[in-house]
Task: inverse folding
């Protein structure tokens, strides 16, 4: 079954949705959409570093995405405005990555695959990485679920309950870095934030509890992947953007249903 490239693409899309669903819910609740976008942009720099040092692409993007998250957290704790820091670092890391790749000798890389994804080229080893990373993220969020919900609701309540908000923020930063490393080959750096946000916002329309919203976001993300891939096959459109468009259509339908 895994010899069929379309089946591998479907499994990859569903695997990424399993990770982005619950994590995207926290991104929406904590208003971290631009933060996720900045971490995704830093992944291009990770691609350049991985190619230059002969490291796996996933490892290079994981390292740079995590470094971006830690740098942003450190600068904001020192009093810098979050939106300004994210604007400078996101675009700076993206531009630096594009420039750095051009300096790697003897290498010609199709950047469109990393910017917009190439889910149809996912192999069996990629599936192992995607599903293993998704399982790791789900386990991490399940372990810290109560503490993360408390911090998201009220920082003072978290302090009173003996929860360290900085530690929980680090957990989310680590999870975001892993998601970026997983999803860059599926939807690309420029579309990762959309896959994080759109399913979660769509699920919020019919959710009454945080758990229902997280599970609903997984289902919507998986459905968007399936619909987008079938549309891509039917109309010969780019697979990654087609998945995001399918997610956008589901969001519009959820608004109509809610009304």
Result:
């Amino acid at each position: 079954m895994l010899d069929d490239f379309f089946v591998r693409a479907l499994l990859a899309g569903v695997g990424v949705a399993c990770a982005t669903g619950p994590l995207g819910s926290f991104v929406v609740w904590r208003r971290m959409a631009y933060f996720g976008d900045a971490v995704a942009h830093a992944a291009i720099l990770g691609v350049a570093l991985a190619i230059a040092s002969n490291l796996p692409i996933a490892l290079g993007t994981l390292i740079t995405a995590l470094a971006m998250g830690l740098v942003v957290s450190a600068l904001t704790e020192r009093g810098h405005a979050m939106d300004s820091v994210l604007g400078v670092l996101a675009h700076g890391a993206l531009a630096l990555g594009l420039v750095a790749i051009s300096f790697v000798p003897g290498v010609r890389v199709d950047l469109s695959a990393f910017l917009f994804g190439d889910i149809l080229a996912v192999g069996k080893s990629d599936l192992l990485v995607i599903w293993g990373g998704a399982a790791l993220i789900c386990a991490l969020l399940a372990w810290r679920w109560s503490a993360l919900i408390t911090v998201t609701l009220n920082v003072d309540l978290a302090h009173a309950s003996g929860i360290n908000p900085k530690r929980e923020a680090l957990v989310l930063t680590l999870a975001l870095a892993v998601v970026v490393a997983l999803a860059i080959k599926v939807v690309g750096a420029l579309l990762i934030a959309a896959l994080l946000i759109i399913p979660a916002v769509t699920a919020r329309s019919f959710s009454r509890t945080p758990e229902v919203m997280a599970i609903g976001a997984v289902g919507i993300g998986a459905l968007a992947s399936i619909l987008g891939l079938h549309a891509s096959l039917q109309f010969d459109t780019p697979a990654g953007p087609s998945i995001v468009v399918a997610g956008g259509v589901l969001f519009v339908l959820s608004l109509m249903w809610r009304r």
